[in-house]
Specification:
By secondary structure, the chain is of the alpha/beta class. The protein has two domains: about 170 residues, Rossmann fold; about 90 residues, N-(1-d-carboxylethyl)-l-norvaline Dehydrogenase, domain 2, CATH 1.10.1040. The chain is built from 13 helices and eight strands. The protein has an eight-stranded mixed β-sheet with strand order 3-2-1-4-5-6-7-8. The longest helix has 22 residues. It starts with a strand and ends with a helix. About 25% of the residues are buried.
Length: about 300
């Protein structure tokens, strides 16, 4: 059981608090006094939906120092604004326990910039939850070069205890998920703007085709199963039609030149024995059938 403080009770802060409380941790939350009653009411509703019959046990504060007193892990979920977060971190310097880990839920801001006013950078890192935070299992975890390994270990242990899967990524702007998500969004918008499909049709294509695969496999495994030579050929057509944003990447060309065409060649982005390939296809088909049934 860990003493956790969640700072900011907007959409993300509420979900993080629900996940921590449902896992049995001691949870304190903070927001501005004039917002606190409404935020706690919304938080209680979310907890009830998530747990069905659990009793929400949190302590809500309108005073920052009271909210973080004795906290082992503090997670900030205030608005995605560098100035707002910096002001919060300056205030927290006077109140945090000397051993407390401070995690930011930023989804895009570079950690080296965020860390500027933090008094103990060795205990500062990112824990990027996804909305709704109580339901989405993955959490991107990123550390600066000054973050102590102990802080990373303590945060990931806490996340595991909440039923989450911490995924370590580099402290780059947007991490991984938002770079991919926004790249997809921009191309989806381009499809609408050039008349290829309506917004509703694009949503349907994603839900029922490429997006259908993603709960089971990431883009590299999907590419290996499709065949990297197939991707190469498609990119050639798309580059001719739409320009250099679809140019064949150097890394893909190197793999093809080396004969690493994917599962069918025994190697692509990964290595595959014959039994690996057979197991992968069998598991894929079983997972896709279950997904189709669940989404029917």
């Amino acid at each position: 059981m860990t003493a956790v403080s969640v700072i900011g009770l907007g959409t993300m802060g509420q979900g993080i608090a629900v996940a921590a409380a449902a896992a049995g941790h001691v949870v304190a939350v903070f927001d501005q006094p004039e917002r606190l009653e409404g935020c706690v009411r919304a938080l209680s509703d979310r907890f009830a939906r998530y747990t069905a019959n659990g009793e929400l046990k949190i302590t809500a504060y309108g005073v920052l120092g009271d909210a973080v007193r004795g906290a082992e892990i503090v997670i900030e979920a205030v608005p995605e604004d560098l100035g707002v977060k910096h002001e919060l971190f300056k205030d927290l310097n006077a109140h945090l326990d000397p051993a407390a880990v401070l995690a930011t839920n930023t989804s895009s801001l570079p950690l080296d910039q965020l860390a500027g006013p933090v008094a103990a950078p060795e205990r500062f890192l990112a824990a990027h939850f996804f909305n709704p935070a109580e339901l989405i299992p993955g959490v991107e975890v990123a550390a600066t070069p000054r973050t102590a390994q102990e802080s990373i270990d303590r945060l990931t242990t806490f996340l595991h205890s909440c039923g989450k899967e911490p995924i370590l990524v580099a402290p780059r702007a947007g991490f991984v998920a938002n770079r991919l998500q926004l790249a997809l969004f921009l191309e989806a918008l381009a499809c609408v703007e050039d008349g290829t499909a309506t917004a509703e049709e694009v949503d349907a294509v994603i839900r029922r085709t490429v997006g259908f695969r993603l709960p089971a496999y990431g883009p590299f495994t999907i590419a290996d199963m499709a065949g990297l030579d197939v991707y190469h050929a498609i990119l050639g057509v798309l580059q001719t039609e739409y320009g250099p944003r679809f140019a064949v990447p150097e890394r893909l060309q190197e793999l093809i030149d080396a004969g690493r065409l994917g599962v069918k060649a025994g190697a692509g982005f990964r290595e595959y024995s014959r039994s690996d390939a057979a197991d992968l296809v069998g598991r894929r088909d079983a997972l896709y059938r279950r997904l189709a049934e669940a989404l029917a």
